[in-house]
Amino acid sequence: ESQELTITNTATPIDEALLPHVFEAFVTSSDRGKGHGLGLYVVQSYARLLGMQVGIANVAEGVAVTLTRTA
User: Fold this and answer.
1) Which of 13, 27, 52, 62 could form a disulfide with 58 if both were Cys (CB 3.0 to 4.6 A apart)?
2) pLDDT tens, 23-69?
3) What is the pLDDT of residue 26?
4) DSSP state, residue 28
């Protein structure tokens, strides 16, 4: 059995070329000086510690982040 939580926002979609790298440290789509590129890296690190997986996708209304836990 698995549990899934999806959080969707209304942000500007992430560039498709950047999407595979968003969980890497210091990767950001923000303008220079506006972001450090650690947010999703930290989310993934904590999720892994808890035995979870994190996914991200552009959706019609913005960006969706999904946390999945398999029991």
Assistant:
1) 13
2) 999 888 777 777 777 889 999 999 999 999 999 999 998 999 999 99
3) 87
4) -
**Of residues 9, 14, 20, 6, the one with CA closest to residue 62:** 9
Q: Per-residue b/e over 28-52, b at no fewer than 16 CB within 10 Å?
A: ebeeeeeeeeeebbebbeebeeeeb
More confident residue, 10 or 27: 10
Residue 55, C-beta contacts closer than 8 angstroms, at least 6 positions apart:
65, 66, 68
CA angle (33, 6, 37) in 5-degree steps = 15
